[in-house]
Design brief:
4 copies of one chain form a homotetramer. By secondary structure, the first copy, chain A, is an alpha/beta fold. Chain A has 2 domains: 303 residues, Aminopeptidase; 112 residues, Alpha-Beta Plaits, CATH 3.30.70.360. Chain A has 12 helices and 14 strands. In chain A, the strands form 3 sheets. An 8-stranded mixed beta sheet of chain A has the order 1-2-4-3-5-14-6-13, sandwiched between helices. Chains A, B, C, D: GO terms for molecular function: dipeptidase activity; metal ion binding; para-aminobenzoyl-glutamate hydrolase activity.
Chain lengths: 424, 424, 424, 424
């Protein structure tokens, strides 16, 4: 793919950031490219995932709104129709003679946050700022999707022998899509899996061959419901959902540390009540717990559930707790770390190769990695450095577009090498 | 005014509920009626209030939105222009020979809550449900404004001797308009003041000559600001505004009871944070404190400020606390209670007269009552019963339109009688 | 009784303050006086109360300790033996011809607090400071017992016609003895009941004929039990009873105010844990709730129980809640207020008579008052002013001994007058 | 030392457990043994420590009580006098020709907890249960002191060449004595330091050559002071120290986890208030924070101080926070781990040698280790396995006395070997 085309593609995706299960424009655009490349073994929407395993699917009204927005933005109508109901994402397959089945997973979703309008923010200055107000590609998944397509094209043009499957995964930001893709039939025969992330505080020219220390995570949504009452005239008649919520927040953060390793808890978005003079009848906590291992995450989750129940009971409220996203922990296999690091060292533009680094956050690529490893295969999560002015998830995040080509090159060469050497 | 006209007027107001300082359509409609009645001594917008004393004025964008909505709904253009900037409300004056100056205060604002679409809810069934989605006349101020106009007309047609001033007050629901109207020049010479409220769980045919036990109230808006951080990767780098908010909520409700009388506190609407995986950098509490006396309210307010400050400090956050509305306590004077109750007993449609009853809530008519009483005058807050299917502030609140005429009759006859007898 | 004898008696009691069900020395000393006066119709210990209704009885070790202390202080051995097991208090009966049965209730217990050693504190300066270290007559019950004996003697020497029963009640400070005495057979036929309290911020020479506004109260003792663990090595293995306790405290104080009237809540004494490095396995709250009415107290108590349960559940702990004392609300009858106030106005030393005043605290005389009122009788709680340097329950509380004689005079004359006039 | 003598000595110490700076009997008994062994270069009390650096020194009354108790138990009078004022502990020095200066640190204090009376608890069954009721050697420091003396004797009888200093350190349990001993002049020239602990869930026959992962710790004592008030009559007049304490507890446990490593927090012992009907005027938290590194401990400590201040401010209280004990983190040097593990493998009774293990708790031996390491020397913390029926710090903790001889043998041989080989 020409550099111009890569940049134009990435910027088009950047202009249309879409959150989990709403990647309508994005999927259409990806499919369009796949067709341009000439790959016909293609699975779109429901065909790409286990439809039972989608997490955090928004309600119909929300889906319709984004569906229409994609249509208005010019999404390809025939593809769009196959995504109706929030079945986004796709899998492209290239089969080229004898050889192992290798997977590449890239995530394609955006974030719900506003993008900077600052002149120093390149997308704003150069006219490819988000057109979906309130949403933004603030984590580089626009670049990920572009790299996925670039690798697909590079492989079709190479002497690669084997099968390559590129997984364009929806809903990573909400830890909502990994499980559905991991449980699809397409992953079942994958012997080697690479996933990748751009940036992560590594500059352009740096490559990390295997990222580890993914925290297992569980997103939870707790809804407290009580009884409203006039706060002046009859405060005793209420059952105060905001009091329950506040008690829960205080006691969620105070779940004991665990001696086995790192844990996390956050009540990241909360709210409740209707007016200053009404005893609040409802409140919610959108939160998460994490653990260095899946077990530690589960310890946190059990304690969190207990706190939420007790807090509701204290104030005569009901609470329902829903899991909105989940991902286990995972580890990159040394077998692939070796291949990627030795390939990377030879590639132009790569100035420094780190064998391993820690993420310290969460990712649902771990679902796919675990699945492949469980089946006896190997997986690695590769970091492609990029100079990014703002931090991930901030309003001024952007990528150095130079790094996209580096990523395509390192990943596609690693795939060819894996196919050739079949490391064990 | 004919019953048909009364009902048509009330329903027109009902279709256009507008919250504090956004009563553009409402004020225009009221002015139109006043002009129809033939009262020319009329003060509109800035002329009707002390412009420095408005509380809880919304931002320009919000004002513009409601202003335009009123224009689209057909508000009289020349009046509308005089209200620009959120200067709503008006005062109509009738001067008829020698006699005391008597005030009548009616409030005209709606509430921000959705109105029921249920078939059993008359406004929905009969086609005068709110056209301002998300807003509703759920407390009967549409009837109050109608009664105010009805009284104005009745007085012009009666043998009343003296001066009548009808205060059409904005922003009562938010305790935001009473002070501005109390501090206007128009109230300075008022010797007798009546205010009124419909319903309050009294059925059609019941009149309360003097309502008491207004709780003094202060609305406060607290904004906590901290520092965001990734909740998985670097939770220690954050200063958690939601933790500060939760600590504040817990400790606001636990401000000690006061031995001098009733107090109240409510964190009625709260929220914070941006996403489940971000340490929340901001949070807010929209709350209120009340007291049986103004002093008790102030005790609560001081303690609340202390709690808010301490909670922010505990979590390394800043907090700013703004007063969004305030009203003192007040008491109806026996002199007027006597007049109203004896008049009411003689009026058709009135089946039961109570001398006094307690409100148990708050009202900023108290600002006007206190002002008049401070100047040596007398005030009473009169209850006009109405059968209301849903409670005040609920989605199915409605008034029995029969009670509007009763209200006009009782109030206008009481005014005539006060003018005739000048009670002391 | 001579003034010297009164003072000597009161000071002897003052030197031996004893808390609930430990009034061994005190009861013996009272019995000694009753015998000196010559009253032989006397019920001691188990005979004086309903033994099933004692609340907050201390454990055997504690009882034995105070029993031995009383013996060492010279308590009359034959009486002492009748009190074994914490059955303290007595009832003295004088039957004198035809006439109504009138009760006088005085409380006799001390408080667990240290007495001041300051030279300005008369008991310290004049050598009658508490000899029971850590206990003190800091509320004037030494004077109450003395007045009770003085009245008994005065009545035996008067022309009183009827039956007088003086109830020397244990355990008022802990709200622990009133119920047991109210349920004894001795109260069943009482037609008129007076109770009294000295001081209450009224100076010597002032008399309050009927005190009201007793808050109903319930003392509760909550024990949280969890699981200990090493706080450094395995914090996750603990179930933290102190966290449960802290959550409970925060949410107890935040039980909503009630629109029907005053409520109170206090976690007056709390504690938990064993060492800074051990996750606390136990904790307790010694607290109370009150209400302006018995119903309001019960509302608070139900909410408190709910909070305690929920807080324990949040932290994986168990909680047991025990009622350690309880008293209803009550009101003085106008019939007796009239008699006492008219008698008081005629007595030497009385300079000012108030018909009524509010207590604002709690008292278990209310159990006896309610019992008498339920049986169709009348009751009043009389205040006898005394100059007291320190506030009630403080280390420097003391009474003006002049007021003891005034109290005896006013109460005994009121009893004679009630007997003579049988008010209805 | 004969086995009989060792056991008799250990049991004598076990019968007289003494907490920090109260090790009067213990120090006297140790000095007696040192004199018996014939070591005359001996530093007792003030001579053994930097007197300015003692932490958590109890008040005089407490010191006098334990001093007298030691005297009554038969402590050697001339030594005892040198310890007056809580200057306990000692340092014994053996100088034997040319060779390096090697330190051995053993801690000698007991714990404040009751010892089991169960028949299955050997000290109870065999008559050497604690004679200091409420105190217990529940962590094996009786065995540590015995091993220290055994090593001293073994070295004097060996061909050791160099200088051995045995540090008998007070107050480890409270993290109160390590700093004072580390800052004494005696440690300044120590080139190699061993410290030891018995048990730690390692059975008899197991040796750990170097223990790591000491959590840095800071003990804090927070005192809240407010204003008392009658909880029924005037709750608003109080400033509630228990409310402040509860808010602090809730928010201490919720100090954010740190991404750099493990942290801990505990409010291990708390209390407040005087009576159920008094608004509590005082309360305290005896707590601790820990960190995997000294920096992490300091992060926790700063946040804790902030929480304590904010919580006090919220409730109008003052808080004073005192550091009652502190210890840094430390790491055993491989140089000594190598020596100890190779020596241990050759000793009779040793069945299994672990190179390293993690403590996961805190220890103030780290002060001495850090001091030696800072001066360019090496240190290791050695684990001597022992079958212990109950866990450390529980009422049934006991050691297998067989392990004492093993400990003496392994440690003294290691010291000889270190002197001979001077590892670098």
């Amino acid at each position: 793919m020409s550099t111009d085309h890569l940049i134009e593609l990435r910027r088009d995706l950047h202009r249309h950031p879409e959150p989990a299960w709403r990647e309508f424009y994005t999927t259409c655009r990806i499919v369009e490219e796949i067709e341009r490349i000439g790959v016909t073994d293609l699975y779109v929407g429901r065909e790409a995932i286990d439809v039972e395993e989608r997490l955090a699917v928004p309600d119909s009204a929300e889906l319709v709104e984004w569906f229409n927005r994609a249509r208005e933005a010019g999404a390809k109508e025939d593809v769009l129709e196959r995504l109706d109901g929030g079945y986004t994402g796709c899998v492209a397959v290239v089969e080229r003679g004898e050889g192992p089945t290798i997977g590449l997973r890239v995530d394609i979703d955006g974030l719900l946050r506003e993008e900077s309008r600052d002149d120093e923010h390149a997308p704003a200055a150069e006219g490819f700022r988000s057109e979906n107000e309130g949403a933004m590609h603030a984590c580089g998944h626009d670049a990920h999707a572009t790299i996925g397509l670039g690798v697909l094209e590079a492989i079709t043009e190479s002497d690669f022998q084997g099968t390559l499957k590129v997984f364009f995964q929806p809903g990573e930001e909400m830890i909502a899509g990994g499980k559905a893709m991991a449980k699809s039939e397409h992953l079942a025969d994958v012997e080697y899996l690479l996933a990748l992330h751009i940036g992560l505080d590594h500059p352009t020219g740096e490559v990390v061959a295997g990222i580890d220390d993914f925290l297992a995570v569980s997103h939870l949504h707790a809804e407290f419901s009580g009884q409203p009452a006039h706060a002046g005239a009859e405060p005793d008649a209420g059952e105060n959902a905001v009091q329950a919520m506040a008690a829960a927040i205080q006691n969620l953060y105070s779940i004991p540390r665990h001696h086995d390793g790192a844990t996390r808890v956050n009540a990241g978005q909360v709210g409740g009540g209707t007016a200053s003079n009404i005893v609040p009848e409802s409140a919610y906590i959108e939160g998460e717990v994490r653990g260095q291992t899946t077990e530690l995450m589960e310890y946190m989750r059990e304690r969190a559930d207990r706190v939420l129940e007790g807090a509701a009971a204290m104030h005569g409220c009901e609470v329902t707790v829903e899991t909105r996203g989940e991902a286990p922990s995972a580890r990159s296999d040394q077998q692939l770390v070796d291949v990627v690091s030795s390939v990377a060292r030879t590639r132009p533009g790569v100035e420094r190769v780190l064998e391993r680094d820690a993420l310290g956050g969460s990712e649902d690529a771990t679902y796919l990695m675990q699945e492949v490893q469980k089946n006896g295969g190997y997986a690695s999560y590769v970091g492609i450095g990029t100079d990014h002015p703002g931090g991930h998830h901030t309003a001024t995040f952007d990528v150095d577009e130079e790094s996209i080509a580096i990523g395509i090159d390192v990943i596609s060469r690693s795939i060819t090498e894996i196919a050739a050497t079949r490391p064990e």
